[in-house]
Amino acid sequence: MGRLRAADRRVGSRQLAAGGRADGPGREDRRAEADADERRGRQGPKKPASGKPIAISGARDFDPFGPDGSEKPSAIGKVYDSSTATYWQTDYYLSSDFGRLKSGVGVILDLGKVQQVGKVTVTFVGDTSVELRSASADAGSEPTSFDAYTKVAEGTGTTVELKPGKSLESRYLLVWLTKLPVQADDGKWRGRVADIKVTS
Ligand SMILES: [Ca+2]
Question: Ligand 1: distance of its center to the CA of 123 in Å?
Answer without folding.
Answer: 9
